[in-house]
Design goal:
heterodimer; A: 102 residues; alpha+beta; 4-stranded antiparallel beta sheet; 4 helices; B: 430 residues; Alpha-Beta Plaits; 2 domains; 11 helices; globular
């Protein structure tokens, strides 16, 4: 089964307790498929053990990219989290684990 | 450092920006300043400036940097000292006014949680994010080294660009273009393929020699991103897109003290090897208030780690985790136990059932005192004699933690100020 990793690259950023995940299509022609596939519900289900809050999705057709802004995802906030990866920098690769429909 | 020197030497730059402040840097620097009043600026400032001054005094490149951290005035004096030692003429302008700890109302609410700042514990720092408006008088003074404390990262780039073309600060689309350039260039080598490489998938050439980026900005704000020839890394549409979206919570309204920039209207075009053109940012007027980053003492964190390897490693590490948890029961209000090698970064959701060859137990807890925090390490070390078989490589750490929350402040409450320093003579310009 193909994973998101096969079609897109991703970088994670953080602001407070919010994780910001970009999803960028390698090929422009795959962008629309990602728009149709990566709904907020699908991403929320995939990251259910990590994202505790609301997810907002931004569509960026000129960049062939989606931006997911995931609240309450970093164990209370970067600076006082006891997590090993307090910034959630590695979460980009958690999102890329997502299985794509055939 | 080598990347910055290569830029200064070979980039034919008018301006070199050194952006060196992470979220917590100023709060930690403020703690150092309390112990030693002449410290509190970036500890690497002297080394960096000493290496750069001989080059920029030859090339005419001007430097702007936020390495002043919690003590920009002392940083300015340190630059003067270095210039004297090197026998180089330098004019330094120091931007202050970001430190608003004394002016901040403690009943103001933190943005992260609806509770007042006073509820977080002892505050150690409060710094407003200053913008290009605060830096411009320093540039107009003719200084060749400009030192700031907390400013918005892109503003370090916006101020020189706006000054170069004589734009007004309310030409919002132009300020948005300059802000885009700043946002893309900050973060060291990230635009050049740093934090991007994934072997076989996203390859980056000569990572060890990674170059840092620069931008050529034209009079309309159209910018071409590039790097010095012969340095490692690459600038492609993919690296530019990752950096453009990095840490942006609203791509249609990226807020700085200077502008609200809309990145969704931007177009990127590869115009040569390692050259990407960026244009089309749109803007709305700047936010009414300034963001303030507040540092507070958040107690002590104790950590302990121990590793297990070979047959049944996962089960032995799990048993160690359960054992430590039981022994620490009720002694820490916040305790976290991770298995490095299976579930420490992404939780349980993606963990395969197959056991890793090596698994490392990590235990972390927060306490009010260093003595209490050290109990974590005691209990992890006790796993040698009183835990599962074959544990090895135990390590223990205790560190004091500084937390950061944010609040907003009215622009009128913040009074930026510029101080000029020249070799011996000191003059003040407001």
């Amino acid at each position: 089964m193909a994973k998101l990793y096969d079609l897109a690259h991703c970088r994670a950023g953080d602001k407070g307790n919010t994780s910001i995940l970009s999803v960028i299509a390698y090929r422009p022609e795959d962008y629309q498929f990602l728009v149709d596939t990566l709904t907020v519900d699908v991403v929320a289900r995939h990251l259910r053990d990590i994202v505790q809050g609301e997810i907002r999705r931004w569509e960026l057709p000129r960049l062939g990219a989606l931006q997911f802004v995931c609240e309450r995802s970093l164990g209370g906030g970067v600076t006082t989290s006891l997590a090993l990866d307090a910034h959630g920098k590695s979460l980009s690769y958690a999102l890329l684990m997502l299985d794509l429909p055939q | 450092m080598d990347a910055a020197l290569a830029l200064a030497e070979h980039g034919a730059l008018d301006w070199l920006a050194l952006e060196c402040l992470a979220e917590r840097t100023i709060a930690l620097a403020q703690l150092r300043r309390r112990r030693a009043p002449d410290s509190g600026f970036d500890p690497k400032l002297q080394r960096r400036i000493a290496a750069l001054l001989p080059i920029v005094s030859r090339t005419g490149t001007r430097i702007v940097t936020n390495m002043g951290a919690a003590n920009p005035m002392a940083a300015g004096r340190a630059v003067i000292d270095i210039a004297r030692q090197l026998g180089i003429d330098v004019r330094v302008a120091v931007v202050t006014g970001d430190d608003v700890l004394a002016a901040l109302p403690l009943d103001a609410f933190a943005m992260e949680a609806h509770r007042p700042l006073s509820s977080y514990g002892p505050l150690v720092s409060a710094n407003a994010y200053l913008g290009a408006e605060a830096i411009l008088p320093a540039i107009e003074s003719g200084a060749n080294v400009i030192i700031t404390g907390r400013v918005a990262d892109p503003s370090l780039f916006v101020a020189p660009i706006v000054h170069w073309y004589g734009w007004a600060l309310d030409e919002w689309n132009r300020v948005a273009a300059a802000t885009t350039v700043g946002h893309l260039l900050e973060c060291a080598g990230q635009l050049c393929g740093g934090y991007f490489a994934d072997p076989g998938r996203k390859d980056v050439p000569d990572m060890a020699n990674l170059g840092f980026p620069y931008a050529e900005v034209d009079s309309d704000g159209v910018a071409t991103l590039a790097k010095v020839e012969g340095t490692g890394g690459c600038i492609t549409l993919a690296t530019a897109k990752e950096q453009l979206l990095y840490e942006v919570t609203d791509p249609c309204a990226y807020l700085t003290p200077d502008v609200s920039a809309d990145f969704s209207t931007i177009t990127l075009k590869q115009v040569g090897k390692d050259r990407v053109r960026v244009e089309g940012a749109r803007a709305h007027r700047r936010p009414e208030q300034l963001k303030v980053s507040v540092g507070y003492m958040a107690g002590f964190v104790g950590e302990g780690e121990i590793g297990y390897a070979g047959p049944n490693a996962n089960a032995r590490a799990e048993l160690a985790a359960k054992t430590v948890q039981a022994r620490l029961e009720g002694r820490f209000e916040e305790l976290r136990i991770d298995l490095i090698g299976s579930s420490s970064l992404h939780g349980r959701a993606f963990d395969s059932t197959a056991s890793a060859y090596e698994v490392r137990l990590r235990v972390a807890g927060r306490a009010r005192t260093a003595e209490d925090a050290a109990i974590i390490g005691d209990e992890v070390e006790a796993l040698y004699t009183n835990g599962p078989a074959g544990g090895g490589g135990a390590r223990r750490y205790v560190h004091e933690q500084v937390g950061i929350v944010s609040t907003m402040i009215d622009r009128e409450s913040v009074r930026p100020c510029v101080t000029l320093m020249e070799r011996e003579a000191h003059g003040e310009v407001v």
